[in-house]
Every structure is written in structure tokens, then in C-alpha cells.
Design goal:
There is one protein chain. The chain has a five-stranded parallel sheet, sandwiched between helices. The protein has three domains: about 120 residues, Rossmann fold, CATH 3.40.50.620; about 110 residues, Serine Threonine Protein Phosphatase 5, Tetratricopeptide repeat (Alpha Horseshoe), CATH 1.25.40; about 170 residues, DNA Cyclobutane Dipyrimidine Photolyase, subunit A, domain 3. Helix 4 packs parallel to helix 5, helix 14 packs across helix 16 and helix 15 runs antiparallel to helix 16. The model has no long low-confidence stretch (mean pLDDT about 95). It has about 475 residues and is mainly alpha-helical. It is built from 19 helices and five strands. It is about 45% helix and about 5% strand. The structure holds flavin-adenine dinucleotide. The site of flavin-adenine dinucleotide has 27 residues, from helix 9, helix 11, helix 14 and helix 16.
Length: about 475
């Protein structure tokens, strides 16, 4: 038999339009390997760990059981697999987050030392991070010039595999084995908080991704006008699939091609994911540092009261119904609607005066679609420390946002049980309505939003003041 190649699956858990797999399998039999890396799993909250297990099960099934799962440091595992099988090539879809880039460079050296080549054959983006340029030839700092350049570089179409892979199997662990390693690096900050309860998921794996995409395409024309309304399911909910690569953005963009304005809006939202991948590629330090470095000087609260407020926010007990509904959706589903992510993030930073990194950590822990680039830069955009051109002054008023985007209270009542029978607009008001009308059991507002908005702007003025 010919020498096999290793297809090292990471964030590309699919078989269609799989260019790394094509490169691995076009001329050789192939070992499909997924490495349970204890370092990555330690930071993986329980909801995402469950999601990954069901996704790996689906991938293994689509490979007729041939997926090989091993646990350990990737360099060590790969050398072991290459020695066992005689493989001299390991093929990957490139990773662009700081940990993944450093890991791949290390693994490349370790493999080279035993005569094995690491081949980078694709990326998890439609356009490779680092490609887009402004008219002046520099990496774009804001979205519009990025989008122009991204569109102009031409998104390639999907490509079927030239032939079915000839799988080679080796001994393997079960996907459930990852639970032994997941969640070990739970931050101290989360003491006293319950994790998301999400353990059952619809539409998982590659087949589930296509079912979801096809269902979304039947209503893509309502996306433009409806994507900000959390009460109705009008967005695609494809983010977990793009996160784990059960769909590639090339496939999504090709399927959603259309001349309607709505399809255009959808395309540009997918491009936000590409933009943040590009920003993190150029500024890896921005994963945990303000992109606008002066904003590191913004005063944030610390100490017991700050921690108490953080916990109230994370539990969905702030007394601001839209914020609480969002945070409870996150706990129930491991997912939250984009408009509400912005409102919740803004509330943490601009009404509670907490460090955006606290909130970003909680989101990364809870979200099944947690993605370092989109999450950290979604947070930085909202916190006014990142790529937004008109940053800190925009303070989302949580009540006005609820009145505008959830006017009938459908979303708020769905997730906040104490408000389930309270009519709109009362259910959208702080505390679920004032005085005697306040519903039993629902918290009074944690802070006075108007007062804290002024406080936030005063702190921002300190950053801006000449020193
Ligand atoms: C504070 C904050 C944190 C976020 N954290 C994450 C995260 O960890 N992972 C993640 O995938 N997205 C994150 N987002 C972006 C966005 O909220 C989600 O991608 C979106 O809600 C997913 O739902 P959907 O698939 O129905 O989106 P749709 O509206 O259907 O959009 C389609 C796809 O486009 C991409 N997309 C859409 N909006 C954005 C955006 N604003 N930024 C980046 N990509 C976008 C996503 O891949 C999404 O699946 C965050 C946003 C904010 C404000």
C-alpha cells in the first residue's frame, strides 16, 4: 500500500469543499486525525465541549468510523501517528489565532526533525487573513475599506473532492474522552456562577449544517430587515458551524449568492467574521489588549462590589429585561442573538464599568460558537476600544434597545420567566415595571442606567484629557 498522509482535522470538521483533505487524499490513502489537545480543552466550557463531542461523532460517522482521536500535545501525537503509519506528510487548514499559529510552527519543526512535512492547504476564511489592503496598500483598520478589498479579491467558489478518500484507521479514543480534559481552566472570576446547561443541539455535523443553511435560504430575503429582532429566528444561526468548520464560508457565500439587498447584507455580515480574523492576524496582542492602546487607561471598577455586579450580569439578574434575557439565553442555549450580545456587552462596560475582558471571558466560556477573533473584537467594538470608527460615545440604552428591537416583548418573555405573563411595554422596563406593578421575583434595576451612562462618559473624558 502507498504511504498514507495524515489529515489533521481542527476547525474544519467536514468532508465537502475540504481542500486540506483534497491535498492529503488526492494521491495517497489518508489517516483522518483529531487531536484532543488538553491545553485547548482546558479553556473549553461544558456547552462547547458537548457541541464538539456531537460534532466529532457526526464526522466519524460520515467517515464510516475511520476518524482517529488521540489525546496529548499535538507534536507528540503527530510524531507517534507518523511513526505508526509511516506517513511523511501532515496536511492542515491553517490556524490564525495566536495559540494555533505558535503551535503549528512548533509542530512543523518537530515533524521536520523526523522527516515529515507539514502542509498548509487551506484557511477557515473565504479570503486568507493578511490579504486585504486599503487603497494606500496598508492593512485595513476599519470595516469598510476591508470589505471593499475583500470583495475585490474575489471569493473562490466551492470545490468538490476529486475522489473519495481512502481512509486508513489506527487505534482511537471515543469523542466522549474529551470530557476528561474539558473545562479544567475555569477562571476564578466565575466562582459562584452556573455554567450553561446546553447539552442537546439541533442540526449538528455537516448534514445538520446543510439542513440549517438550506432552511435559512428560504427566508434570506427577510434577513436585512429582521436580523436585529431577537424575538424571531431571522438570522442564520450558522455561527457554530462556521466555528467548527462543518461549513466553510465559501460554501455559505456561494449558496447565499443573490441580487437581493438582503442577501448583500448577509454577505457583509459574513465578511465581519473575515475582518476580525484579519485584525487579529495583524494584531495578535489585541486578543487581550485594547486595540486602541490609549483605552487601556479607562478606569474600571474592581473589588467585591464589581464582582457581585459581574455575577448579577452573568446570571441575567440586572433588572434590565433585555440584558437579562440575553444572558439567560446564553445560559440556556450556549448562544445569544447578535443585537443582544451588543447590548449585554455595552451594559457590562458602560453601565457597570467593568473590564471588557471579564465579559469576553464569560462569553468565550459559554458560547458554543466562541471564536477568539469575533468574540474579542465584538467586545472591543462594543467597548469602544477596538475597530469602531465612532467608538465610546455610543452607549446602548438597554430599555430603548428593547423597545426598538423587541417591541412586543416576545424575546424578553421567552427567556425571563418572571416576566412571562407581563404585557409589553411593561415587561421591557427596568425592574419589569415600576412600583406596585413590579412583577414578583424579578430583580430591581442593579444600577441607574442614565446616571451610569454619564459616569462612563466622564471616565472616557479622562482618557481623552491631555496628560
Ligand atoms: C460581544 C460580542 C461577542 C461575539 N462573539 C462571537 C463569537 O465568539 N463567535 C462568533 O462567531 N461570533 C461572535 N459575535 C458575532 C455575532 O454576534 C455572531 O456571529 C452571530 O450572532 C451569530 O449568529 P448567526 O450565525 O445567526 O449570524 P448571522 O447574522 O446569520 O450571520 C452569519 C454569519 O456571519 C458572521 N457574523 C455575523 N455578524 C458578525 C459579527 N458582528 N462579527 C463577526 N462575525 C459575524 C458569523 O459567522 C455568522 O454566523 C460576537 C458579537 C458580539 C457583539
Amino acid at each position: 500500500m502507498k504511504t498514507p498522509a495524515v489529515m489533521w482535522f481542527r476547525r474544519d470538521l467536514r468532508l465537502s469543499d475540504q481542500r486540506a483533505l483534497e491535498a492529503a487524499s488526492a494521491t495517497s490513502p489518508v489517516i483522518g486525525l483529531f487531536v484532543l489537545d488538553p491545553v485547548l480543552l482546558a479553556g473549553c466550557g461544558p456547552a462547547r465541549a458537548h457541541y464538539l463531542v456531537v460534532t466529532l461523532r457526526a464526522l466519524r460517522e460520515s467517515m464510516n468510523g475511520a476518524l482517529v482521536l488521540r489525546v496529548g500535545g499535538p507534536g507528540e501525537v503527530l510524531r507517534e501517528v507518523c511513526r505508526e503509519s509511516g506517513a511523511t506528510r501532515v496536511v492542515i487548514t491553517e490556524d490564525f489565532a495566536p495559540y494555533g499559529r505558535a503551535r503549528d510552527e512548533r509542530v512543523e519543526e518537530e515533524l521536520a526533525s523526523i522527516g515529515v512535512e507539514l502542509v498548509r492547504a487551506d484557511t477557515p476564511y473565504a479570503v486568507r487573513p493578511g490579504t486585504a489592503r486599503t487603497a494606500a496598500g496598508t492593512p485595513p483598520k476599519v470595516f469598510t475599506p476591508f470589505f471593499r478589498s475583500w470583495e475585490a479579491s474575489g471569493v473562490p467558489g466551492p470545490q468538490p473532492l476529486s475522489s473519495d478518500p481512502q481512509w486508513v484507521t489506527l487505534s482511537s479514543l471515543e469523542p466522549e474522552h474529551l470530557f476528561d480534559y474539558a473545562g479544567r481552566a475555569r477562571p476564578e472570576l466565575f466562582a459562584g456562577l452556573e455554567d450553561p446547561r446546553a447539552t442537546t443541539f439541533e442540526d449538528v455535523g455537516e448534514a445538520g449544517a446543510w439542513a440549517r443553511l438550506e432552511e435559512f435560504l428560504t427566508r434570506v430575503d427577510r434577513y436585512g430587515e429582521g436580523r436585529n429582532q431577537p424575538g424571531e429566528e431571522l438570522t442564520s444561526r450558522l455561527s457554530p458551524h462556521l466555528r467548527f468548520g462543518t461549513l466553510h464560508p465559501r460554501q455559505v457565500l456561494a449558496a447565499a449568492q443573490g441580487s437581493s439587498a438582503s442577501a448583500g447584507v448577509f454577505r457583509s455580515e459574513v465578511a465581519w467574521r473575515e475582518f476580525y480574523g484579519d485584525v487579529l492576524f495583524h494584531h495578535p496582542e489585541s486578543a487581550w489588549r485594547a486595540l486602541q492602546t490609549s483605552m487601556e487607561r479607562l478606569r474600571v471598577d474592581e473589588g467585591p462590589l464589581a464582582h457581585e455586579r459581574f455575577r448579577a450580569w452573568a446570571r441575567g439578574e440586572t433588572g434590565y429585561p433585555l440584558v437579562d434575557a440575553g444572558m439567560r439565553q446564553l445560559l440556556a442555549e450556549g448562544w445569544m442573538h447578535n443585537r443582544v450580545r451588543m447590548v449585554c456587552a455595552s451594559f457590562l462596560v458602560k453601565h457597570l464599568h467593568l473590564d471588557w475582558r471579564w465579559g469576553a471571558r464569560w462569553f468565550l466560556w459559554c458560547l458554543i460558537d466562541a471564536d477568539l477573533a469575533s468574540n474579542q473584537h465584538g467586545w472591543q467594538w462594543t467597548a469602544g476600544t477596538g475597530t469602531d470608527a465612532a467608538p465610546f460615545h455610543r452607549v446602548f440604552n438597554p430599555t430603548l434597545q428593547a423597545e426598538r428591537f423587541d417591541p412586543d416583548g416576545v424575546y424578553v418573555r421567552r427567556y425571563v420567566a418572571e416576566l412571562a405573563t407581563v404585557p409589553s411595554p411593561q415587561c421591557l422596563q427596568p425592574g419589569g415595571g415600576a412600583g406596585l406593578l413590579a412583577p414578583a421575583g424579578y430583580p430591581a434595576p442593579l444600577v441607574d442606567a442614565a446616571r451610569e451612562r454619564d459616569e462612563a462618559l466622564a471616565r472616557f473624558a479622562e482618557v481623552r484629557a491631555p496628560r
